[in-house]
Amino acid sequence: MPFIKKGILAFTIIVLVALSWLLITPTSSALTAPILTVDESFERFNITDRSDQYLTPLNATYLDVLSTSRTMLTNTSEQRDNRLWYVTSIENNGYSDIPLVVNIDRLNLDDLQLYLVDENQRIIKSYRYEAGKGDYSLAKPIPTIRFAFTLTTDVRPTLLVGIKDDGLRHFPISVWHKDALNSFDRQLLSLFGVVMGTLSILTGYFLLSYLYQRTPARFWFAMTNGALFFLFFVVQGGLASWPALTNTSEMAIAVLLSISFLMMAKVTHNLFLRIPPTLRVVNFLLPTFMAILTLTSSPYQAVITLFWLCPVIGLFNVFLAMTFKDERNLGSSRLFSIAWMCMFLLCALMVEIIFTGITYTTPLIVGLISLLTLAQLCLGFSVELKERTFNLQQISEREATINSLNYFFDLFRNSAEGLYTSTLEGTLKTVNPAMCALFGYKDEQSMLAAVNNTRQFYADEGDRDLLVGELLDSGQVMGREIKGVRANGNEFWFSISCQVRKNEKGNFLYGSIIDVTEKKQSDISLKYLATHDTLTGVYNRRQFENIFRERLADDSELPLCLLNLDLDRFKVVNDTCGHKAGDALIKELAHQLQKVVTGDAILARLGGDEFGVLVADRTELEVNELAESILNAVQSFRFMWENRIFNLGVSIGLIVCDDKNLSHENYLVMADAACYFAKEQGRNQVHQYNKNDEGMLRYKKELDWISTINQALSENQFVLYYQPLRPLNKPNDGYYYEVLLRLNAQDSKVIEPAAFLPTAERFEMNVNIDKWVITNTFRWLSENPEHVRSLRRCSINLNCHSLADRDFKLFVLNAFENYQIPYDKICFEVIESVAIIKMEDTLNFMETFNNLGCAFALDDFGSGFSSYNYLKSLPVSEVKIDGTFIKDMLFDTVDAAMVSSIKDVAKSMGMKTVAEFVENDALMAQLGKMGVDFAQGYGIAPPKPLNEFTPL
After folding, report:
1. CB 143 within 8 A of CB 240
2. What Cα–Cα distance (Å) separates residue 175 from each residue in 38, 109, 160, 229, 833?
3. Which of 217, 302, 226 is nearest to 265 (CA)?
């Protein structure tokens, strides 16, 4: 900043001038001239430089000093019990009498004696001064000790100055021409007025500005200048106006200087806010320690202490300013440091003056006053600069606040939510346009004028009282849904969030409101949908189970009864007329069932064509009668769709819930088992669950298998086995085998597929089993590339449900891609009966993978009724002759003829043949003679785990 640069330049110039002055100003004289010669041109002379100095006992007189037994002074600072004498002879070389004045600036002297004697040692004039003895003859307004006399041309008098004091005894004692001293007094008085005026102006300005701006730095800087005002007053002998206080000058100076440093510490702390508390305490303790030390020490030691500690305190403040400066306001730190540099220079000059006895002259005093004034001005500018930066920051913050307020006002005005402010009593204060639109008012003014109290917002005014009560208790309310009233009287639902805030005008309620009428209606609908079936309007399965669980926990005389209803021939309607017709049928039938299921009985839709009825407080006979009524109602129901009439049946499973140890899930499973058994017995009937019923036990066993299969799929409990095929008419040129499936039971027993595959097929779980077999077979092959290179044919069995599943074909294609298995290495085996039943799906699947290179084998060939007829339609490359013809062919000529026939037909169509159930070498030899290509069975090799593969 230009201001800072100018300040640094001015400080540098002052320092150079002051140093130059110090260099050219004599501090002492090596030449001692006992005779002072004066004439009409004489102005001043420092007799401490041109005089003999002697130490004498306190009781010695001036005559003793002038006697020959005097002792030359050697070390005055350490000899406190003697009197120090300055002896100077004065000679007038002029042509007229010259008026002279001895001037001593220091007033706090214990005992001062001045003698002017002639050549005969007779006293021409004498003066004695003792501080605190009430000498009212001192000059005013700047008191000094003056000893005036006239020097004639005919006399060469001797001037003797005797000093007895416990403090410093080496200080300026000067002889002035009277006119020069009067001129100096006038100049000094002007300079004194300048300093006092400057300090007064600074004190007043910063104190008054503090009352306006209330910034602590201004107050403490005003106090600093006030303390310096009194300090300067005391230094210039102000206490001499009260002579009895003259001896307290040194203590007053020490106290005022300490107070000034304490005030300055406060200024420092307010300018540099980052100063830690510990260093702030140190900054306060240093001036306090200085005051205590000076007040408890001797006068001489007190002066030495002041001159040592003042620079230390100054350096510490400079250290704080430079270390914890504000990076946004470096100018303040620099000005602060310049001010303390001026203080250091001022302190150095004072030490030089006091310890070398330099006479105060106008240039010297101007320099001292300039340094003091510059220091205070720099501190003042530092405070101003700090506050200007602070004010700029405040202005920026205010602008940011105004921008934020404008932003939030825009948000308030343009918010989609209705926003308002009111008193706790309900008086409306502010609203936004969205609030007006929500309640049907034209604008804010019209709404504020029309609404006397916010109670008008509520359909029930008591809702507001409850809301305010909760607000006073918790301070805020979030998302409370309340029914409100618009300006036209229409009711609607709104969600209100509000809170109470206090300002200088009292407590106010700030709220936001949004219209939730549609949401509220939707919530009501959702609650209904959560418990009811959307198609029929009766309870859904979830709500039915909740009610069932609650009713089971109740104690009643008669046990609950559960009916499970499963419609018969419903699939015919779905497949013939589509799902739309099926939905219409279910809806109409549900209304018919509601007419039959009356009283406290509960009807629910449990699934697509499955219903449940929960009956309480009825006997077992009454429940059976209800089940028969339902059966008759369904039998008599006729459904018409597009001029077609359908009749239905229903299978009903009934169970009495008389065992408290069973859960509602257990009873639902049992009722489902009873319903399944009713279907097994011929459909359209009621079957009551009996745990000892063989059909129930069989069904329960199948349910157990379902759980076991699901667990095996999720926990990878299936195991892949293989059974090799041996070529009968050629050498073994590679690996031929069929992949088989086993299940590891929990007791480490291996379960054959015949135990669980029928259940899996009945409940359509075999698609997931086929996926597991393909995935794990392909993974094992990809992990054994050497095996794949020797592999000729790996056969995998597929089920009818897999061939009919559209996603299964995509799954197999992805498996080939993911595991990079060559298509020509895989052969899919399809059971003959399955291929014939699912002919269209089977052909589609075969054609897709035949084109990619896969082979297909027809398994269990010969077991069907039209094997030869369908063989021409299927793109198979291999026929596996059913084992029932193989195992007895050596003893049964019909079986041998069937095998030969199948082989001849396959050969004529270019297909390979595989004989299953080959149990011994004799069978294998006979099959080879007949021309069968491969043999498979325990006579070749038993099934083994695939991961333990061993070539034949």
Report:
1. yes
2. 10, 19, 12, 30, 146
3. 217
Q: Please, is 35 exposed, middle or buried when counting C-beta atoms within 10 Å of its C-beta (0-12, 13-18, 19+)?
A: exposed
**What pLDDT is attached to residue 29?**
34
893-921 pLDDT, tens digit per residue, is: 888 888 888 888 888 888 999 999 999 98
Whole-number pLDDT of residue 356: 66
Q: Report d(CA 90, CA 50) in Å as an integer.
A: 11
- Residue 80's SS3 state is coil
549 neighbors 664 (Cβ within 8 angstroms): yes
Q: How far apart are CA 246 and CA 249, in angstroms?
A: 6
Q: If you search the block for the tokens 């005003």, which residue do you land on? A: 222
* Cα gap 47→60, rounded to integer Å: 21
Q: How far apart are CA 377 and CA 918, in angstroms?
A: 120
Give one DSSP letter per residue of 152-200, joined into a string: -TT---EEEEEEE-SS-----EEEEEHHHHHHHHHHHHHHHHHHHHHHH
Query: DSSP string of 209-227?
Result: HHHHH--HHHHHHHHHHHH
DSSP 723: E
CB atoms within 10 A of CB 823: 13
Could you tell me if 457 and 464 are in contact, meaning their C-beta atoms sit under 8 angstroms apart? yes
Q: Name 514's bridge partners.
A: 495
The mean pLDDT of 151-176, rounded to a whole number, is 83
CB 863 within 8 A of CB 886: no
CA distances (Å), origin 763, targets 94, 699, 703: 147, 12, 10
What 3-state class would DSSP assign to 845? Answer: helix
pLDDT for residue 784 = 94
Across the chain, mean pLDDT equals 81
Please name the residues in contact with 94: beta carbons below 8 A apart, sequence gap of 6 or more.
38, 39, 40, 153
pLDDT of residue 26: 38
Furthest C-alpha separation in the chain: 184
As a whole number of angstroms, the distance between CA 664 and CA 445 comes to 63
Helix (H, G, I), strand (E, B) or coil at 297: coil
Counting residues of the chain whose pLDDT is more than 70, the rounded percentage is 88
Question: For 223-279, how does the pLDDT look when each residue is reduced to its tens digit (9 = 90+)?
Answer: 888 888 887 777 776 666 676 666 667 777 778 888 888 888 888 888 788 888 888
Q: Specify whether the CB–CB gap between 235 and 288 falls below 8 A.
A: no
Beta-carbon contacts of residue 668 (< 8 Å; ≥ 6 apart): 545, 548, 562, 564, 612
Q: By the 8 A CB rule, do 696 and 669 touch?
A: no
Phi, psi of 700 (to 5 degrees): -65, -35
Lowest-confidence pick of 60-69, 663-672, 814-823: 60-69
Task: Name the β-bridge partners of 418.
Answer: 513
Question: What interhelical angle do 921-930 and 893-908 show, nearest 10?
Answer: 50
Taking the C-alpha atoms of residue 142 and residue 331, their distance in angstroms, rounded to an integer, is 38
Q: How far apart are CA 753 and CA 219, in angstroms?
A: 99
d(CA 528, CA 501): 40
Taking residues 411-430, report their average pLDDT. 83
Omega before 141 cis (within 30°)?
A: yes
The residues with which 125 forms a beta bridge, in sequence order, are: 116
Q: pTM for the complete prediction?
A: 0.42
Q: Is 853 left (phi over 0), alpha (psi -120 to 50) or beta?
A: left
SS3 of 418-449: the string is EEEEEECCCCEEEECHHHHHHHCCCCHHHHHH
DSSP state of 298: -
Cα–Cα distance measured from residue 826 to residue 796, given in angstroms and rounded to the nearest whole number: 8
Q: CA-CA distances (angstroms) from residue 316 to 5, 216, 254, 285, 311? A: 24, 21, 19, 12, 8
